[in-house]
Amino acid sequence: MTPLTLVLFFAFFQLRLLPHAGAVARHHHGGGVSLRSQQAALLRWKSTLRGSPALESWRQGTSPCSSNWTGVSCGVVAVRRGHRASSSSPLAVTEISLRNAGIHGRLGGELDFSALPFLTYIDLSLNSLHGEIPPAIASLSRLSYLDLIGNFLHGHIPREMGSMGLLGDLRLAFNNLTGRIPASLGNLTTLATLIVAHNMLAGAIPEELGKLASLDVLYLGSNLLDGHIPESLGNLTSLRYIYLYGNHLSGPVPSSLGNLRKLRDLDLGQNRLSSGIPVFLPNLTDLNTLYLAGNELTGFLPQEIGLLAKLNTLYLYTNQLRGAILPAMGNLTGLNYMDLSDNQFAGSIPGEIGSLVGLRFMSLSQNQISGPVPATFGNLTGMARLDLFSNMLSGPLPQEFAYLTHLEVLSIANNSLSGELPPDVCKGGNLLVFQSFLTPVVTTKCDVYSFGVVVLEIVMGMYPSEIQSLASREQHRELVMEDMLDKRPSYPTIVEEKEIALLVEVALACLQTSPQFRPEMEDVYQKLALHKPSSFASPSHAPRPEEIIQV
């Protein structure tokens, strides 16, 4: 996973799923633990860590509760001895929150969890903790929130954690954890969020997870899990998010998932699931995302798929689905993203697809679809990318394509289309066309934009919309150039430096926001073939030679 993916992943769950920290525990049977011993435990742990300026406020002679120790919060607790409440420990450390604090070290070792019995909240995510998760962490019987996402922890998830009866949020994603998911986690009846994605966990998903009646989020994606999806997950009627993508799960999608009427996201992509599209889909009336791509699903699209009125994202690509694309799919008026590519769909594209006016991305490529492209596609005015390549489509593109002014990528090659590409389809000025027309006609300004995108995709490996965003940063051209050059190859020669600089200069000129400032393709050819100056960009848009950075 890239750093950006990790940040986006983390931000998504912080915004949507972060619960309020658990309330401070009020009673402790068997005697209190002094604040001084809690201070000593934290200072011993600090002494084993390195590279964390955030912990400079943790000093001898100061109190974690009255001296503003970074990342430490305290609460008033009552300690019960026998039948009488005692105030021998009125303050105690209840929270440690050190997300992205630059901590390097171990979670276990010198951190004495038994000296911190009042902890209810721990967030050590996005640090550089290594080693194993110590089984002793289970002694934190009051803990309700544990977040260790984005560290370098390895080893197994301790089965002892199944005794942490107040735990409501367990986040261990983006580590190097191995072994099986402990069946004992099924004892955590207050657990609302379980996130252990992007590790190397193996074996079957425990049936015992079906006992987590309070579970709202189940995130097990990108591991090495195998076997069938347990039927017992259908007992988790509070579930809203299931992410099991990127494992080795096989067999059918269990029918019991039809009981999960609160489900919003169902992501089972990139597994080895077989059988057909689940028939229980109409039960999931709140479903927003359905991701079943990259499996071995067969059969036809069920008519009931058109009942998912709240569906925003439908990804079914790379399966073995066949039959027609149903007119009922025109009822999915909330759809923004649809990918049915790399299947065996046949027949014509129903005109009802033109009712999906919110679509921004649609791919029907690599199927056996025939007939004309519907004129109703002209209603899809927000479409940014349309992939229809490698089908058996015929006839001309409808003139209504001129209304698709936000289109950035149009992929229609390997069909039997005829005639001309409607000239106005490039009216927006930023269209990249992959096509195989008999008599293609597009404006030269459209051609050079496509050329610029292709050049910078090769150099940068980015999507057209990302390139457009970078190219528009005219006030920071030096930074734009630095972003654009791929630093992975070996250091170039002087001649190669000049050639790369020239190529990037030309590509940026082709990507001017206003088509009137773009060069003609003949000018581009002259510039590259003859290596001679050309005044094909306006002074306010063209990069100056001194702004081309050294690779």
TrEMBL record:
It is found in: Membrane. It is a single-pass membrane protein. Residues 37-74 form the Leucine-rich repeat-containing N-terminal plant-type domain. GO terms for cellular component: membrane. Keywords: ATP-binding, Leucine-rich repeat, Membrane, Nucleotide-binding, Receptor, Repeat, Signal, Transmembrane, Transmembrane helix. One of its GO terms (molecular function) is ATP binding. This is LRR receptor-like serine/threonine-protein kinase. It comes from Panicum miliaceum.
